[in-house]
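Lecture 7, part B: from sequences to assemblies.

Below are the input chains for today's worked example.
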Amino acid sequence: MGCVESMNYEILMRHGSFKECREYIRQHFKEYIDVQPGFKIFDVHLIGIPPITIGLENDFIIFPYTKPCHGTFLLRVEDTVEAARLRAAKK
Amino acid sequence: MSDKPPTSLGSALLVLGCPQVPVQTSIALYLINRLKKSGFVPVVAGNKAANTLLVIADPERHYIGEIMDLDRAVAMITEQKRDFDRCFVFIHNDAGISYAGTMGAISKAKLFTLVYGEHYEDLVKQIDFPCTIIAAKAIHNPLPLKKAIDEVTPWAV
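Predicted structure of the full complex, as structure tokens:
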């Protein structure tokens, strides 16, 4: 998952549980979509218990990023093209 | 009597978690051996540390066969380039639950979750997707988890 790790991301939550990340997105972002595990965002197939919630805020994407040794991180990344793709997928 | 396994019953994916809890490597080798003897072709998917622990423990590859990066395995299954008949996910933390939920959603394999570690009971409560749960409080001593696995015999036809 090299691409995400080299991105200019902000960590909104670290070492949280997957469930906590999902609840955080639903509580803090008006716009979100639910996807299935394996859904590809950037170069990452998302890991998690379905449904996986992805938040959208203008051009920012908020999504859970799970690593085996460190648990789930909630990342916030700015990407105009990917945000537009997710909004299109939502419709 | 021949040591050769019977005709292949299919493939079994072992999804390793963080190798922080010592029993994982031991139980993985044990399970690989039992699966092979029953006729399954085991494939291991883990992160670099988990995979390296196995490779160093079995330098002549008596037990382990194919071994791959965990993210690559998820990608291949999601993209329907490959799938397995059985899937065993090692769980000792929340990330393990997430990987098991993912495998349950993307793979057609019969799913087994191996839950261990200090907080295994709390982790079991979080599993709300279809799978066979094999759980024991095993941290340094693999025997409680081995016993739980033997009772389920997940290598049986």
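Note for the exam: The first strand of chain A starts at residue 9 and ends at 16. Keep this in mind when comparing with the next example.
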